[in-house]
Design goal:
Shape: globular
Order of helices and strands: HHHHEHEEEE
Oligomer: single chain
Strand order of the largest sheet: 1-5-4-3-2
Radius of gyration: 26 Å
Number of helices: 5
Distance between the termini: 62 Å
Mean pLDDT: 81
Number of strands: 5
Low-confidence stretches: 18-30, 44-49
Length: 196
């Protein structure tokens, strides 16, 4: 009791000092109750040359749109991967979702566009199988939309591979492609859960 009596006058004497303190920086902290709501992402990111690529690279106008939500882009990525890797309908996958002259950085493909990709990937996928592990879409700091499919590829010729398929998108059209592939040596790893 005695300690509480001494502490209370001391705390009250600090009140004038506390009232002159710098105000709390509330804009940096969430103060409203409820579930977290991430900031809205742009449906059409802005960076130089972006608005014209949908048309200049030849996006399919009957099956794609230059504007899309992140959810719609994920649905396109899922449908594209289903057609290409699971059903192995390579031509349908590219003609439905990719720009005719899309930019291709894949080292195993000799150029850009759907015609070259179809000609190269059709024999590569024949007789093999794919197990899709993860898919997601998002934006980079410039506002450009990207989609990634991470999967396990099994080929009678190449064996087991770990592949990340990366697409830059505008709306629901696939504009630019990269892939990263590695042979999966499951018997020689020290990690108890390698690759997948």
């Amino acid at each position: 009791m005695y300690l509480a009596q001494l502490t209370l006058p001391f705390l009250l004497s600090l009140f004038p000092l506390l009232s002159r303190a710098r105000p709390f920086n509330s804009h940096r902290y969430r103060t409203t109750p409820g579930p977290y709501q991430p900031p809205a992402q742009p449906s059409q990111p802005e960076f130089p040359g972006f608005s014209s690529e949908y048309y200049s690279l030849g996006c399919p106008k009957n099956t794609t749109s230059p504007h899309a939500t992140q959810r719609e882009q994920l649905e396109v990525l899922i449908n594209y991967a289903q057609l290409l890797y699971i059903e192995q309908d390579v031509a349908q996958a590219y003609h439905t979702y990719a720009a005719t002259n899309f930019i291709n950085h894949a080292p195993e493909v000799p150029g850009d566009g759907t015609a070259i990709a179809i000609g190269t990937q059709t024999p590569m996928l024949k007789g093999g199988s794919v197990q899709i592990q993860r898919q997601f879409t998002g934006y980079n700091l410039s506002g450009a939309a990207f989609g990634v499919t991470y999967f396990k590829g099994i080929s009678p010729v190449e064996g087991v591979g770990v592949i990340a398929d990366i697409w830059r998108m505008q709306g629901t059209c696939l504009l630019e492609h990269w892939d990263v592939a590695e042979g999966a040596t499951l018997n020689t790893t020290t990690n108890p859960h390698p690759y997948f």
